[in-house]
Amino acid sequence: MRKPLPDGDAAVEHGTEEHKELERTLKRLEGTDPGRAPASTRSSPSSTTLADHLTDEKSEQSPRLRQSIPREELVNLASTHP
Fold first, then answer.
1. Residue 1 confidence (pLDDT)
2. What is the domain partition of the chain in residue ranges?
3. Whole-structure pTM over 0.70, yes or no?
4. With 60 as the cut, is the pLDDT of residue 42 above it?
5. Which of the four pLDDT bands, split at 50, 70 and 90, describes residue 9?
6. Are 29 and 37 in contact (CB under 8 A)?
7. What is the pLDDT of residue 3?
8. Which are the contacts of 38, defined by CB distance < 8 A and separation ≥ 6?
9. Is residue 69 exposed (0-12), middle (13-18) or buried (19+ Cβ within 10 Å)?
10. Is the pLDDT assigned to residue 39 strictly greater than 70?
11. Before 45, cis peptide (omega within 30)?
12. What does 17-54 look like in DSSP terms, one character per residue?
């Protein structure tokens, strides 16, 4: 994303921060009975972060990348990163 998109650096940084936040939430939940998870991990901001992240990837980032990267390069990337 850094190369093909004009705002690729910012998009990567934003996505990385979201991933880190989600990882921290998952670490807090490790070994916790799902029915007894703290309310703070069952609701926002972690659920909001996940929903926003998935929406960004599906509706914004992926389409922009498909438009910016030649089809042959996308096929090559897909074959090297299963």
1. 83
2. 58-82
3. no
4. no
5. very high
6. yes
7. 87
8. 28, 32
9. middle
10. no
11. yes
12. HHHHHHHHHHHHHTT--GGG--HHHHSTTHHHHHHHHH
